[in-house]
Amino acid sequence: MTPPYTTRPAQGGPHRARAARRGRDRKAEILMPAPGRDRFTPGDAPGVAVVGGGIAGLAAATLLAERGARVTLYERGEALGGRLAGWRTRLADGSEATMSRGFHAFFRQYYNLRGLLRRTDPALDRLRPLPDYPLRHSGGLTDSFARVPRTPPFSALGFVALSPTFGARDLASMDARAALPLLDVRVPEVYERFDDMSATDFLDRVRFPEAAHHLAFEVFSRSFFADPRELSAAELLLMFHIYFLGSSEGLLFDVPNEPFPQALWEPLGDYLRGLGARVRTGTPVHDVRPGEDGVELRTDEAVERHEAVVLALDPGALRALTEASPDLGTPAWRDDVAALRTAPPFLVSRLWLDRPVRPDRPGFLGTSGYDGLDNISVLELYEGEAARWTARTGGSVVELHAYAVPAGAGRRETQDRLLAGLHRVYPETREARVVDARHEWRADCPFFPVGSHHRRPAVRTPHPLVTLAGDAIRCDLPVALMERAATTGFLAAGALLDRWGVRGQVLWTVPRAGRSSALRALSALAAR
């Protein structure tokens, strides 16, 4: 964690920090930045470049601009949002729609991401709660989180009691001692103990019921765009802590009530411009040249100079920029960046159908055992744009995801398999005509395979004026996915601000250890 932070309990600390939480978990932790000035004066404000306009870059640019720095945000795409960007497309019926890379869940324990969004939406009115997160296996079993208690350990006990995947015989055969590490997950210790094991191997060691393994843990593992046989067990344990045993925010979540650009990124871009930041979309940065008193960036137009830079890029883009920047980093650091892995390809298929799905279908359904289909979203149940299309046409807007598509799988064949899976899960769609379709194939998400954590680059780099941010960047806090991106963005900006004696961002996190002394004592038995 960087720069130096001090921890305060959620129920204590200054009023300003208490008011920022807006969550229910009284054991969430406040991380206070090092003391410093509130902001730069106009005469000493440094120019800082932020390369990458996704969540991490937006978080870094927001904090720097709020502190008075002269910020230039470079984004190679035509819109902000990174992997959550959206773009307009014209459908076969002549109407316009916003296409994106698909569904994302904004969990209530994403404190720092939600804090970023509150800059333009203080009450988070542009997020809409979904009432459930059901999981369905092709064998007929279905899990639900709507009635599961949110406060640990009752959340785990309630899930086991309500889930059809845990029978009395299954519980008796589990290795309780092997499961004890789940009760006290700490960062970075969890990586020291479990990064050399796969998620599947850990579950096999615990002897989780096979049905629970496939229905629950495999669904969550694949949300990291990874096959659980390759994913680090440390990431699985961390995920279990963040969403289940470590937090009382629960496993339910919110989703934007309009497409990502309109609900989230366009307002945040306007907010940045209002702070004086330059937002330059459609502007790739080709190389970085750090020096003792500043950093030069080369774009299509010119070589531009700044006092410092935050590189907030996906793994492939960071590898490419590092390779094109021979003066960036030490040989060992460059080797670690080159070792960053990208997850296997994934597919998002969005279908505009000429008739509705059944009205009792959930807005989001996780699936397992359906030949590569990982989830189904019914967009009109939560997104205004889709709802207006369905009200006008009487149809439905359905989105299908396939994570970690196997190497060599044909694109058309995979798309057809997802459609066949939809017909199996929601039989009423078999007679529906596809009015239009968009298929997004991507392969730019981070991958956390077994044994990779020690090489993951951190926020600080060998150059004090260059920092990194993103969901692939190492962070010694219990955060993942979008929340890791937002948190490292604030940390990357904070590391630069700390150098100039300016205060960073107050951060929030789920507890950084097991929630009770009794559970921590039980977990300690497994380490003996």
Tell me the number of helical segments per DSSP (H or I, 4 or more residues long): 17
Strand content: 15-25%
Count of individual domains? 3
| Physical arrangement of strands within the biggest beta sheet | 10-9-19-20-21-18-22
CATH superfamily of the largest domain: FAD/NAD(P)-binding domain
* Share of helical residues: 25-40%
Report the span from N to C terminus.
28 Å
Basic shape = globular
Please compute the radius of gyration using only Cα atoms: 23 Å
In CATH, the architecture of the largest domain is 3-Layer(bba) Sandwich
The overall strand count is: 25
Taking all residues together, what is the mean pLDDT? Answer: 90
- Return the CATH topology of the largest domain: FAD/NAD(P)-binding domain
CATH class of the largest domain: Alpha Beta
| Class from helix and strand fractions | alpha+beta
Largest sheet: 7 strands, mixed
Low-confidence stretches: 12-21
Architecture overview:
The protein is α+β, with helices and mostly antiparallel strands and 528 residues long. The chain has three domains: 5-81 and 259-340 and 450-509, FAD/NAD(P)-binding domain; 138-250, no CATH class; 344-442, Polyamine Oxidase, Chain A, domain 2, CATH 3.90.660.50. It is 32% helix and 22% strand. It has 17 helices and 25 strands. The strands form seven sheets. Strands 10-9-19-20-21-18-22 form a seven-stranded mixed beta sheet. The chain has a five-stranded parallel beta sheet with strand order 12-4-3-16-24, with helices on one face. A three-stranded antiparallel beta sheet has the order 1-2-25, covered by helices on one side. Helix 2 (55-66) packs parallel to helix 11 (260-274). Residues 12-21 have low confidence and may be disordered.
